Q: What sequence folds into this?
């Protein structure tokens, strides 16, 4: 069905088209071109032959072209800040003399000048350091982002420029540095969520940070009321001892009875559904260590059970044997509320520096500690697990677990545990190392020296059809991709890697529809959700890198990106609901109002999702924000907002199909809202027992609020403009015009425009009439009856950002954001404009 706007615009001719950046400014710049004083430019000559003196221009390029008052503040003037522009440039920033028109003209060459300056700087660097490569730096403070020696996600849809001389792999040095005002700093690499977000769309991140600042106030109140903090370990320094006496005696005051601990240990080995970690333990050895090192009291309690009165060690002070059992209690008894004395013991055992600590139990304790923090602690980006991974790497390689275990440790089963459990400890160390590399974006610590896949004893050489066999084959494939990603001597083919990962999912993990269909999800082995989330998360990382680094913005890439994020959302929501239903059936006592923790299976779901939620959500929302604030691919979004084809049974979209933005947004909303509708609100109430779930719900609402705001004002701008051109182009009375519109809507076929350019060699997307208005009659101007497309686009851009910024200020000034955390009913109302 052809819309009225299409009928009005069909006769327009393309003329004077100038692409826009992601902030809607002409000339392809990212939010306003720079300016300069032009003092070194060629001076014009007056009619009498005397040279005219150039006036020193101090305004920025954007204000100069728009004839706006510029306060000349640096790095950005107030005008550019109010319009949310990325750049505010002055000619003095450039290293060479430039003509004023190159900066302040209608069609500036700022981007070209930037590239010239960039190339000159690289040449100087290469001349000074002939044997070194200059990395691409991405530096960010807690208050703003700055990208050095690179361009962000702008409006260019052309093929990428050739790489600079000496740069073979542009991904290897792609990173983001988070610098807090306190002085704390963390670096994140190319596969990290933070790096992908910071390089995808600066405009969205600026709005997100602005709104999140308001939400953070309420989050801090929630954390204080619920006594949740990421600084728990450091805060223990301020706490006095619970009572005089050794630390081990203090711990005993909080332990369950001797008999209760026995039943917990049995449950860990009997219930494999919720206990992934039991493969690293030998039940016979654990039981013996418990009997040897945990001393019960002589007097029984009224219920007939005995309390624990002391914890022993061997003659070499190996407290790690007891620590393994204490970590089992943390996972299956204390959950997120570890007693302070016990936490002090774990900190001490983790941080000891003597060589007398390299026991197999230390490796087991670190794996269980990692698993506990993954399920019950803050830290969606994984940074709170870095130290554990590094300690684990040092421990397992010092123990020699990277060698032939069945040969070296044969006959040592009594002190070390079964050979199978030793192999599983090494395997879990490999898995944790991969997880941290994927989350943080750091090279793998367990490199090819420690894990030689050509050796017959390599633990990853497993062809079984079990969950462990599939996971090992995935790690074997994905690790090679991460090695290539950080190899500066080779250019990694991320598109090929994505296809290989897609093939693995389709061949190894069964029909994708069983994961995305809420009614079929129960047919999938629950543990295998971890593998598919890891695979889809890595594909998303590759998509984001290609999008931001190579500027690949094709019709095919747009479809596949939207498809992938919708699949991710569907799997995440289905897994959460499925685990909730399992717990509701098996552990009904965990849903009492007084129960303060997540039920066991829901807690396990935090690890199964592999940090996929935040990475998918913010990347998706930044892409939608990019498209909604971009006017280069057609003025009107009406076609792309129509709901059409959708099928989440395949990772890639068929070349003859179009997954429109409207369809993507509609499905995203429907999928996310299922969380609030499941279990008669009981699911959301239960999720409020988890700090990580709370943050995810707040991030989802924050992101959706931003998109709802920008979509509302995009529609408002288009409707205002269309109503104006209807009056100017259509002289018919209102009644006749209404009849004509109904006739067009009844007879016109349904078409949708391709929202992104077509990649060379790919099939053409479905055809659609152009919605790019290029000429509009100008009222009161007989000499110039038309306006160019660039002028119309600029007019619409100005009106959009004016309305949007005013509406945004109104939103930010709202005093109430507490519903982000306290509204456990989970409102499913859509923000304005959805």
A:
């Amino acid at each position: 069905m052809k819309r009225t706007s299409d009928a009005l615009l069909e006769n327009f001719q393309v003329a004077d088209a100038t692409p826009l950046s992601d902030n809607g400014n002409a000339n392809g710049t990212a939010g306003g071109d720079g300016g300069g004083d032009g003092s070194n430019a060629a001076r014009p000559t007056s009619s009498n032959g005397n040279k005219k003196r150039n006036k020193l221009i101090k305004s920025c390029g954007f204000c100069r072209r728009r004839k706006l008052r510029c306060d000349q503040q640096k790095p950005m003037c107030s005008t550019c800040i109010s319009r949310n522009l990325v750049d505010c440039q002055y000619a003095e920033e450039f290293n060479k003399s430039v003509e004023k028109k190159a900066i302040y003209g209608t069609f500036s060459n700022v981007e070209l000048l930037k590239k010239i300056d960039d190339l000159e700087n690289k040449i100087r660097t290469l001349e000074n350091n002939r044997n070194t490569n200059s990395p691409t730096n991405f530096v960010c403070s807690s208050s703003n982002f700055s990208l050095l020696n690179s361009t962000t996600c702008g409006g260019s849809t052309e093929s990428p420029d050739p790489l600079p001389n000496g740069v073979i792999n542009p991904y290897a040095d792609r990173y983001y540095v988070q610098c807090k005002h306190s002085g704390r700093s963390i670096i994140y690499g190319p596969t990290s969520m933070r790096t992908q977000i910071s390089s995808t769309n600066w405009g969205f991140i600026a709005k997100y940070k602005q709104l999140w600042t308001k939400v953070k106030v309420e989050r801090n109140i929630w954390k204080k009321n619920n006594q949740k903090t990421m600084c728990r370990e450091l805060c223990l320094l301020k706490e006095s001892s619970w009572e005089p006496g050794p630390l081990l005696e203090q711990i005993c005051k909080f332990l369950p009875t001797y008999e209760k601990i026995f039943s917990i240990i049995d449950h860990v080995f009997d219930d494999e559904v919720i206990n992934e970690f039991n493969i690293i333990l030998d039940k016979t050895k654990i039981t013996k260590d418990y009997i040897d090192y945990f001393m019960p009291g002589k007097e029984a309690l009224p219920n007939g059970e005995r309390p624990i009165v002391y914890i022993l060690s061997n003659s070499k002070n190996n407290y790690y044997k007891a620590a393994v059992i204490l970590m089992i209690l943390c996972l299956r008894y204390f959950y997120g509320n570890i007693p302070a004395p016990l936490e002090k013991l774990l900190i001490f055992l983790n941080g000891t520096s003597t060589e007398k600590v390299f026991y197999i139990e230390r490796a087991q304790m670190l794996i269980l500690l990692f698993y506990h923090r993954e399920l019950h602690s803050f830290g969606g980006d994984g940074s709170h697990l870095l130290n554990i991974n590094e300690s684990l790497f040092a421990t397992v390689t010092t123990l020699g677990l990277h060698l032939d275990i069945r040969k070296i440790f044969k006959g040592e089963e009594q002190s070390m545990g079964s050979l199978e459990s030793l192999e599983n400890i090494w395997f879990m160390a490999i898995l944790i190392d991969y997880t941290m590399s994927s989350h943080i974006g750091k090279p793998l610590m367990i490199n090819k020296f420690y894990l030689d896949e050509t050796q017959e004893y390599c633990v990853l050489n497993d062809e079984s059809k079990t969950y462990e066999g599939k996971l090992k084959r995935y790690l074997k494939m994905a690790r090679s991709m991460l090695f290539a990603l950080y190899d500066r001597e080779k250019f990694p083919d991320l598109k090929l890697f994505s296809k290989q990962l897609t093939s693995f999912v389709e061949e190894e993990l069964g029909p994708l529809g069983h994961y995305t269909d809420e009614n079929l999800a129960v047919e999938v082995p629950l543990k295998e959700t971890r593998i598919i989330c890891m695979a889809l998360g890595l594909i998303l990382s590759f998509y984001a890198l290609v999008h931001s680094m190579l500027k690949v913005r094709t019709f095919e890439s747009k479809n596949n990106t939207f498809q992938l994020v919708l699949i991710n959302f569907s799997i995440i929501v289905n897994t959460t609901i499925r685990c909730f239903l399992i717990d509701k059936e098996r552990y009904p006592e965990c849903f009492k109002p007084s129960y303060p923790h997540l039920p066991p299976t829901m807690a396990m779901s935090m690890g199964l999702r592999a940090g996929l939620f935040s990475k998918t959500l913010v990347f998706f929302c930044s892409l939608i924000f990019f498209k909604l604030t971009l006017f280069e691919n057609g003025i009107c979004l009406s076609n792309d907002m129509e709901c059409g084809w959708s099928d989440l049974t395949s990772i890639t979209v068929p070349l003859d199909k179009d997954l429109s933005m409207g369809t993507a947004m509609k499905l995203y909303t429907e999928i996310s809202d299922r969380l609030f509708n499941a279990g008669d609100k009981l699911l959301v109430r239960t999720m409020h027992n988890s700090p990580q779930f709370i943050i995810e719900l707040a991030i989802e609402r924050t992101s959706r609020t931003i998109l709802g705001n920008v979509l509302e004002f995009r529609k408002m701008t288009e409707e205002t403009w269309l109503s104006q051109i209807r009056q100017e182009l259509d002289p018919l009375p209102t009644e006749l015009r209404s009849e004509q519109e109904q006739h067009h809507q009844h007879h016109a076929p349904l078409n949708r425009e391709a929202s992104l350019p077509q990649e060379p060699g790919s099939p053409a997307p479905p055809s659609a009439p152009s919605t790019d208005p290029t000429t509009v009659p100008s009222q009161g101007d007989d000499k110039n009856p038309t306006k160019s497309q660039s002028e119309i686009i600029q007019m619409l851009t100005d009106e959009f950002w004016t309305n949007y910024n005013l509406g945004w200020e109104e939103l930010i000034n709202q005093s109430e954001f507490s519903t982000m955390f306290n509204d456990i009913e989970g409102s499913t109302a859509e923000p304005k404009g959805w």
